[in-house]
């Protein structure tokens, strides 16, 4: 422990100094085993009002850890080559360092120094707790010296400058009265605080070491001098009550939650809420989100069934993604912050925008505005929540269709579909329109159900197994009853019905058909082994074919067969597509423009999906690229392959393009899809 007193012994008595000004000093940059007790203290000073203390301590320049050249360099930078009383380092060597204090806490009413002696606890309140840290003020002095030298070197033309400035006019301005707000800013400024600190003079102290006799004498004032038993009262408090008296609950230092930006969501605070409130808060902030992303934002282990129950309360399903409900964004009895339109009107307009996105991937802003008749800023806000503008394509929905969620949760998808039908009927009455007003001209209306390619493949396999035995029985019965007549029926009339195109798939279906029930394949027949063998051979040679091109190749094959020999029965479009799916081919959903000149069969593109070699993944990535555009530049294909498979060799890209694509006017198209 160290203590100090004023240089003037008559300025104050010892006990008054100890009881009124008592500090605890800490050295946070030094371990406790390396104290400064044995270090020579050169000087000490204090500013009591500001609770600032400075200690100057000698450095051991003979230590093997001391770099003498660095010490001389620092002393030269600070003092230069001159010798006077203002020098910081008189020995021309950095032989001392200064420690300056900062307050560890501004409120020490809960802290005291205690001494236990002879069964008595003596407590003395603290004035302050100070942390002593090294001061680097000598670096500021070195910078000032450098500026003075530079100014001296540039001072040769000062007489000329003074001559030029003799004729300058002087402008006199009067300061305006200072407002209260300006005064508060000035008081809180760094310059004002520095000036205020400089106004209090330093009081120089004499330092006494911890084991010095003067320090021992000062420590006696830590003990209470009054031992009159009449002044002591019996402790009638319980231990808990007594501790509460010593350590009262914090009132002035209550934890204040930091105020963040309004658009920032704290995940730590979010997870303290009930699950329903968590889902609602996330949807209000994000606006549109896939269900998988929502589960990723919630705490691990959260039950997905509970989340599904909550999400349906605050969001609607649009293209397999969840979009926050309008009445959640615009509660009742509120209005638009942009235009002041009531919340009820905003909800109807936004519901119309969301309903349009359940029908199409892209919408036109002018078309939306002409129907809902709301201010442009509100219409733009609706669209920005769930879509992004595309050149010459209007506003496209923000996320791709989440087909996986629709397949996995068909009951929820159906429930949401019925909910949208109810919303549609209300919107038709409010805005006086019908669904047919927004259907594209000359385009087939999609059916109510979309069946995937995997489902078609499974159904085809099941039909093949179910019909195999019944077909064999029927064939035997017809042979027994009709003799050789059966051969003519099996060959079929190729001139009349070589290719049935009456049951084609609507453009845009996902590897499937849009009717509610499986198609009738030539009166119950399924793709024969001969047809599947032809499909396999053809796609292993061409890799990518449109339905129209495949039918042309099939007709050529039939024409090349010997007269009277035809192993293929009557074949419909659906049977051909089932055969392709059974032979590891899949339909590629190429997004042709609405004004495309290709025929419907030319817009149905199929690609070989699986051959068993390592090059299958290259083809699948290529097919995925062409689901985003019907024509692609080579560098985009190369970038996608590099991103997914690493550095793709040029030979692999050349092989891939040769197998599956054709180049026209610098752009690459899938085979058979170049528009005339």
TrEMBL record:
**Which superkingdom does the taxonomy of this entry point to?**
Eukaryota
Cite a GO CC annotation.
Answer: RNA polymerase III complex
GO biological process terms on file: tRNA transcription by RNA polymerase III
The record's section on InterPro entries has: RNA_pol_III_Rpc5 (IPR006886), RPC5_C (IPR045576)
In which residue ranges is the amino acid composition biased (Basic and acidic residues)?
142-152
Location of region: Disordered: 142-167, 498-529
Q: Residue spans with biased composition (Polar residues)? A: 500-529
List each copy of the DNA-directed RNA polymerase III subunit RPC5 C-terminal domain by range: 441-676
Q: What is this protein called?
A: Polymerase (RNA) III (DNA directed) polypeptide E
- Give the species this sequence originates from: Cynoglossus semilaevis
